[in-house]
């Protein structure tokens, strides 16, 4: 039981890092960023490629995170920026970008999965009946550190304040002199960094492949809906709830249907609250 | 019926009949890879005609169409295995899938835009999980054979006939109050609701109709193809169907046809190497969304209007 809960915690941390990137972008720009999966995939491949070329792991990981940030910002500059006034078009653009990014990875590296080796692969902690593989501990550490950094950025800096202002009311923020365009780019930059962190955190436990992030992205979207589109704190809470729910479901019902339990949760929530747990009218990034 | 409306119907239904006949000729004429491609194009067009109600007219981004398509294909295959007559198996498969569509509709038709896209996408992901894992019925990841329900000639006739009848039904339904209500949902859902349009119910009906079209297309596809596998009905396929409607021109009569020919042509016919055709497709799709929100047919229609007005004024 405690092992199942710990596994749920691992999953929850992963979902949180991905979901916060999604919800931040949604909060600021109202884009359902399906292309985030592509960002994660490319970041994972960048890490793998750098490691393969002989770079030490820490350097390769930094390369991966940087790659995630660059790709994410590029999607904003080249595509999303142009549909900000047409919300109906944004799911379409997001899906188009996802096709492009995933297939770039497929073109560059082929469809075969590759394993990402880390220096902490073989580390194994034991606390009573619970075993903690090093990769998963690293995942939790990375998640907590990056989310704490994000929290500080959003709550303590003027950049964060500007971003929250844009998320609350775009027009009012613009009138008060907040540079809107820069907030868009910044949101995608942060989302990309988090995507890179997610990639290096969980690629070692799965495999690096063009479709590695699909399931995680779906779960992360459930999290975002659970927590309310645009709410960072809601995303973290929702991620932990979903992680534990999926982990319980896969342990006690069927592991093949793990992500279906997330769907069940999503259905239950949407039947009761069609616009998510938090109304988007009271949207905020904090 | 006033003459102008008769003329309008004739102008739409004439080409529909022609396309239907052409589809039959191509289905009979082509063998091997070309035949496969024609089959895909015809069955996609039938399925996408249903999607054209939800995504096209009502403007709701539905990513569930591939799972309805797969639902029809798998259900009919399973029922045929149990010795049911072909017509009954097909009817039950379509009915069962429409029931699934009803459930999807009941849950998600109250949600708006982004939530709807996320919910339907997740639904497709779950059906793919079922297709892959319920190996006793579906044969698992490698798929399963489909028993022959109809003779091949009949299947070809049904494919071509359903293509024409489906498009005709779309044309006629789009002109009814149902079509007008869907358009009202697209234009301004809150306003429509206040003016007394039962928006949730209209969306629900549209989703169930789209499930019916998708399932019937799946039944015919399975019959002709002889094998069904999960990879034919994943949410990537749902994306591609969504893309097809967008490229064709959402809500336009021939968008399913133009969209599926373009998408399938680009992904199956042109071989740039792995992935490249989908990169091109993604770029084309984004470009169409940004530059020509009414799709290829919208651009052609605008060009045609310009030529005509020039001819009149000259």
UniProtKB/TrEMBL annotation, chain A:
One GO cellular component, as annotated = plasma membrane
User: What is the topology of this protein in the membrane according to its UniProt annotation?
Assistant: Multi-pass membrane protein
Q: What are the subcellular locations of this protein?
A: Cell membrane
Gene Ontology process terms (BP)? amino acid transport
Q: Which molecular function term from Gene Ontology is one that the record holds?
A: transmembrane transporter activity
Does the keyword Ribosomal protein belong to this entry?
Answer: no
Q: Does the keyword Acetylation apply?
A: no
What is the superkingdom listed in this entry's lineage? Bacteria
Query: Cross-referenced InterPro entries, in alphabetical order?
Result: ABC_transp_permease, BCAA_transport_permease
Please classify the protein's predominant subcellular localization into one broad category.
membrane
Parts of the chain that traverse the membrane:
6-27, 34-51, 57-80, 130-154, 184-204, 216-244, 256-273
Keywords on this record? Amino-acid transport, Cell membrane, Membrane, Transmembrane, Transmembrane helix, Transport
Q: Record's family?
A: Belongs to the binding-protein-dependent transport system permease family. LivHM subfamily.
Q: What is this protein called?
A: Branched-chain amino acid ABC transporter permease
From TrEMBL, chain B:
Q: Which UniProt keywords apply?
A: Cell membrane, Membrane, Transmembrane, Transmembrane helix
Chief subcellular site? Answer: membrane
TM region positions: 12-30, 36-54, 86-108, 115-135, 155-174, 204-222, 228-247, 254-273, 279-304
User: Record keywords: Membrane included?
Assistant: yes
Q: Which GO terms describe its molecular function?
A: branched-chain amino acid transmembrane transporter activity
Superkingdom of source: Bacteria
Localization, UniProt: Cell membrane
Q: Does the keyword Transmembrane apply?
A: yes
The UniProt entry's GO CC annotations, sorted and at most eight, read: plasma membrane
> How does this chain sit within the bilayer?
Multi-pass membrane protein
Q: What is this protein called?
A: Branched-chain amino acid ABC transporter permease
Say which species the protein is native to. Answer: Kitasatospora indigofera
**What are the top taxonomic ranks of the organism?**
Bacteria, Bacillati, Actinomycetota, Actinomycetes, Kitasatosporales
């Amino acid at each position: 039981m405690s092992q199942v809960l710990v596994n749920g915690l691992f999953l929850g941390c992963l979902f949180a890092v991905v979901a916060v990137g999604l919800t931040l972008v949604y909060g600021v720009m109202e884009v359902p960023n399906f292309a985030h999966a592509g960002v994660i995939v490319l970041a994972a491949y960048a890490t793998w490629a750098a490691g393969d070329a002989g770079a030490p792991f820490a350097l390769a990981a930094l390369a991966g995170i940087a790659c995630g940030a660059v790709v994410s910002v590029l999607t904003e500059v080249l595509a999303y920026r142009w549909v900000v006034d047409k919300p109906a078009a944004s799911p379409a653009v997001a899906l188009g970008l996802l096709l492009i990014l995933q297939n770039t990875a497929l073109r560059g590296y082929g469809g075969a999965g590759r394993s990402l080796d880390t220096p902490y692969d073989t580390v194994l902690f034991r606390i009573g009946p619970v075993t903690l593989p090093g990769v998963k501990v690293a995942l939790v550490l990375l998640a907590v550190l990056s989310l704490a950094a994000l929290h500080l950025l959003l709550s303590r800096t003027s950049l964060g304040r500007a971003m929250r202002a844009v998320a609350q009311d775009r027009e009012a923020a613009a009138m008060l002199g907040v540079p809107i365009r820069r907030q868009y780019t910044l949101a995608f930059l942060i989302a990309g960094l988090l995507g890179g962190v997610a990639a290096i955190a969980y690629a070692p436990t799965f495999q690096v492949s063009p479709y590695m992030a699909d399931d995680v992205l779906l779960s992360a979207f459930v999290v975002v809906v659970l927590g309310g589109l645009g709410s960072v704190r809601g995303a973290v809470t929702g991620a932990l709830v979903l992680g534990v729910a999926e982990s319980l479901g896969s342990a006690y019902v069927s592991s093949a249907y793990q992500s279906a339990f997330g769907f069940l949760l999503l259905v239950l929530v949407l039947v009761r609250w069609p616009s998510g747990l938090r109304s988007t009218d009271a949207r905020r990034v904090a | 019926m006033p003459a102008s409306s008769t003329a309008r119907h004739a102008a739409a239904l004439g080409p529909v009949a022609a396309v239907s006949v052409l589809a039959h000729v191509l289905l009979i004429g082509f063998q091997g890879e070309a035949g496969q491609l024609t089959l895909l194009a015809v069955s996609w067009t039938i399925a996408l005609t249903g999607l054209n109600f939800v995504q096209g007219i009502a403007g709701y981004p539905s990513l569930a169409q591939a799972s309805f398509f797969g639902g029809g294909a798998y259900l009919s295959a399973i029922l045929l295995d149990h010795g049911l007559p072909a017509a009954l198996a097909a009817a039950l498969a379509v009915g069962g899938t429409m029931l699934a569509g009803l459930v999807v509709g009941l849950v998600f038709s109250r949600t708006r835009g982004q939530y709807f896209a996320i919910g339907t996408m997740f639904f497709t992901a779950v059906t793919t999980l079922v297709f892959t894992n319920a190996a006793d019925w579906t044969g698992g990841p490698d798929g399963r054979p489909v028993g022959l329900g109809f003779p091949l000639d009949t299947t070809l006739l049904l494919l071509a006939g359903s293509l024409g009848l489906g498009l005709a039904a779309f044309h006629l339904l789009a002109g009814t109050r149902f079509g007008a209500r869907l358009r009202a949902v697209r234009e301004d859902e809150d306003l429509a609701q206040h003016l007394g349009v039962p928006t949730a119910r209209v969306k629900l009906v549209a989703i169930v109709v789209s499930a019916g079209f998708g399932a019937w297309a799946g039944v015919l596809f399975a019959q002709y193809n002889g094998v069904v596998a999960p990879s034919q009905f994943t949410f990537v396929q749902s994306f591609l169907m969504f893309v097809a409607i967008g490229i064709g021109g959402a809500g336009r009569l021939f968008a399913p046809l133009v969209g599926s020919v373009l998408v399938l042509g680009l992904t199956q016919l042109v071989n740039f190497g792995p992935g490249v055709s989908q990169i091109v497709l993604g770029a084309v799709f984004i470009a169409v969304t940004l530059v020509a929100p009414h799709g290829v047919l919208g651009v052609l229609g605008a060009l045609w209007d310009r030529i005509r007005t020039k001819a009149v004024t000259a």
